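Dear V.,

Thank you for sending over the compound details. I've combined the ligand you provided, fe (ii) ion, with the protein sequence from our construct and run the structure prediction for the complex. I'm sharing the raw inputs here so there's no ambiguity about protonation or stereochemistry in the SMILES, which I know was a concern on your side last time.
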Amino acid sequence: MNNTTPKLLFVDQEQQTLQILQKLLLSEDWDCAFVSSAAEALDFLQTKPCDMMISDVQTARTADVHLFDEIHTHYPKIIRIYLSTYSNRDSIAKILSEGYGQQIIPKPWVDQELKEVIRSAIRQSHQQKKHSDEFQALINSIPLLPSLPESYSNVRSCIVGDEIDIEKMSIFISQDVAIASALLHWANSALFGQRFQVDTLKKAIVVLGTDIVENLILSESVNRTIASELPEIDGFSFKRFKKHSIATAILSRLLIKSILPTDSIQHDRAFVAGLLHDMGKLAMASFFPKQFEEAIKMATDKKCPLPTSEIDILGTQHAEFGSFLAEWWALPPFISNAICWHHHPHSSSIDQDIIAAAHVANLLSYQFGYGSNGETYQREILDEYQTRFYLTDEATEILRAETVKTIQGLTTS
Ligand SMILES: [Fe+2]
Ligand SMILES: [Fe+2]
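Below is the predicted structure of the protein with fe (ii) ion bound, written out as structure tokens.
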């Protein structure tokens, strides 16, 4: 055991349950402690560090102590998981909505499932430690972070090294009408230089290339995962968000093409960086709608940058939040870097071309009128970047025309 070994505390009034858990977890490289009451758990925490508490619902809620309320208030960095029998299910919704517990494991549990939930929570805890205490507490106030849908992992499974099973990939994609039609639209768009009609998914995969296909599906999966139940927020619209992301992706690809005309890998990377650069906004809108709405209002009223008001109200800003999620989903590092630094490209020492392209593309897409979503404060494109991407007035007009044409093609075809 060392400092990075996850520290888990199990709480259950039934000794037999604790013994079963102890035996089950013996083979894992986790530092597990077991106590049989809420009071004992609180005593334990006074002297020992803990990353995660897994407690039986009834043991956690006695007449005197509401264990998870205490943990939530005094140890917000500890991840909280409930173990609960089916008969307690009426109180489960309430527990989750109170925000005290972040995940529920049913009793009796399936051994593999229990370990998987704990492993997933350990990953979350490790990642949180790289951020400020305030950020950790914020992440801990939301339920366990969601996983990306199967459609994304299915498509990824068709790519092994340099080998791609296009037949299998097109079958997976065809099961999702929205994704299939989006891919056909992109394959027929001017952006990918297609002169002939692309009418089948197999042709679309060949025209776009598997990287772009994978990234478009990734972006769709991210949007669905985060925004499945997006509440109404004053000053924020999902439609505008999507348009802004698509415009930024198009521009990002065109910009990097102007400085690296033959590097198709960088073209594809810049495209996905543009698509996902603001996903932290979508996550804030979904997980913290009230605070995000307040941040938008503050940015509008004070005419300040949205990240400034986000930090004031939520203690973090969408670039940090989005890059945290990208790391949580184990997306390629250039994506989390581009998300993290798209407002401050100077601060990153790696992936500079992609980050600079996403940065300028973001500003141009606002300039071209693609969605404000709270960012009413207009930032200028620094001279340095104007020079780097050859942004003369004439070149900017060409970029505007290409973006408008591509977006129109996508939304009207
Ligand atoms: Fe942004
Ligand atoms: Fe943006």
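A first observation: Residues 229-412 form a domain with the Hypothetical protein af1432 fold (CATH 1.10.3210.10).

Warm regards,
I. M.
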